[in-house]
Design brief:
The protein has six helices and five strands. Helix 1 crosses helix 2.
Length: 162
């Protein structure tokens, strides 16, 4: 099994290794597509830090938000391709954010992967009913999160199930 988020954070040299700011990790090569845009939304700084580090290292353009209100503001500022979205957060929970994303016409094609410590089937079903594309239960292996993002990006953009 791959490293957990906490193991990844402990193995990292520190925040100085992160590229500064929110922009993509450099211009795309001529003739190539720009990097996929990932928004990571979680109120746990260690999860934000490790996922941000790994996603940038993989070549994604990454932004973060620490609560549901920030997440909606970031999505309005620049629509991401994928949102990794914690369920339990201050201000607006992940279910509310997911529902707003999937009911806003210009955002419906954003892929949403829910992150939660709650692994109960009822939460999974609620997330899927609100339009979530995938669901990851914490603690999770960072490789699993990376694989899920890659799989979400490989699927055609559009509302889940159609």
């Amino acid at each position: 099994m791959g490293a957990t988020v906490e193991e990844t954070v402990n193995a990292m040299a520190g925040p100085a290794d992160l590229p500064p700011g929110d922009p993509p990790p450099g211009p795309a090569a001529p003739g190539s597509a720009p990097p996929a845009r990932i928004l990571i939304v979680d109120d746990e700084p260690n999860i934000l830090l490790s996922l941000q580090f790994l996603m940038r290292k993989a070549g994604y353009a990454v932004r973060t938000a620490a609560d549901g209100e920030q997440a909606l503001a970031e999505i309005a500022r620049e629509k991401p391709d994928v949102v990794l979205l914690d369920v339990m957060m201050p201000k607006l929970d992940g279910f509310t954010v997911c529902q707003r994303v999937k009911t806003t016409p210009e955002w419906r094609d954003v892929r949403v992967i829910m992150l939660t410590a709650r692994g109960r089937e009822v939460e999974r079903e609620k997330g899927r009913a609100l339009g979530a594309d995938d669901y990851i239960t914490k603690p999770f292996a960072t490789k699993d999160a990376m694989d899920r993002v890659a799989a979400a990006l490989a699927r055609p953009a559009g509302p889940p199930g159609g």
